[in-house]
Design brief:
It contains 15 helices and no strands. With 257 residues, it is an all-alpha fold. Helix 2 packs across helix 3. The longest helix is centred in the middle third of the chain and has 18 residues. It is globular, with a radius of gyration of 16 Å. The model has no long low-confidence stretch (mean pLDDT 96).
Length: 257
């Protein structure tokens, strides 16, 4: 889960200042956590304390109301009732990494990913994006190869994952849809050498950089098993204590699963 959050923090400064290179400063002084981190923490909290996903998202969204949510989701946070709004946005995919880590089998991961998505993002693309990312995290955590993960995701969800990043990058634009965010984020992971390289590749696409790096980072951390210590230190220094406590509690609960 810290892999996803680190991707969000590092990518935050490039969301509105797009770059098309992997050679950039990982530790920009303006880096912050955004809505991707807040909602990832909310999903983790829901799992840890057996809360309803929507309840947890609304709680954390109201605690951190200026984290950069989209307009519809921001309104959803402050509504008393839970009314999904048929969104196909990438918000369902960026918050789902804890599900891929916490649950033991594929069927449960897919079911929980759908449940976490459909409280707001109940469009088929919103659900598909969440399930694809959660499954990739789960399979990476289980030690499956990149070839296996790519095949499973492509077969189950119909994404084209055979493109080269160098072919995508020149023409890629800011895209908040699941269908426009999840496949390139996955490809950035598949073509990476290690965690840092995965984050650099995701951000180098030049799109919704914090969300791309959040998705890629969650999978990369599960696959590679570690994040460089200097990245961990930098990211934790940007998080409130409540988030760090939930991260530690989640790691203690699910590290061995």
């Amino acid at each position: 889960m810290l892999g996803a959050i680190a991707g969000d923090v590092i990518g935050s400064v490039y969301e509105h200042h797009h770059i098309k290179t992997e050679d950039f400063n990982l530790f920009h002084p303006s880096c912050i956590f955004t809505d991707d981190t807040v909602m990832t923490i909310a999903v983790a909290d829901a799992i840890l304390h057996q809360r309803d996903y929507a309840e947890a998202m609304k709680r954390f969204g109201r605690l951190f109301p200026h984290a950069g949510y989209g307009g519809q989701f921001s309104r959803w946070i402050f509504e008393d009732e839970v009314r999904p709004y048929n969104s196909w946005g990438n918000g369902s995919a960026m918050r789902v990494s804890p599900i891929g880590l916490a649950f033991k089998d594929v069927d449960t991961v897919l079911k929980e990913a759908a449940r976490s998505a459909e409280v707001s993002h109940n469009h088929p693309e919103g659900i598909r994006g969440a399930q694809a990312v959660a499954l990739a995290v789960h399979l990476a955590r289980q030690g499956k190869s990149k070839t296996f993960i790519r095949g499973e995701i492509a077969q189950r969800f119909g994404y084209d994952l055979d493109q080269k990043l160098d072919e995508i990058r020149p023409h890629y634009k800011f895209d908040i849809s699941c269908q426009g965010s999840v496949p390139p984020a996955l490809i950035a992971f598949f073509q990476s050498r290690d965690y840092e390289d995965a984050i650099r590749k995701a951000i180098s696409l030049g799109g919704d950089s914090d969300t791309l790096a959040c998705i890629t980072g969650g999978i990369a951390r599960a696959f590679y098993g570690r994040i460089p210590a200097e990245i961990v230190e930098f990211v934790l220094s940007r998080l409130p204590e409540e988030f760090i406590q939930i991260l530690e509690e989640f790691e203690a609960a699910f590290a061995g699963k």
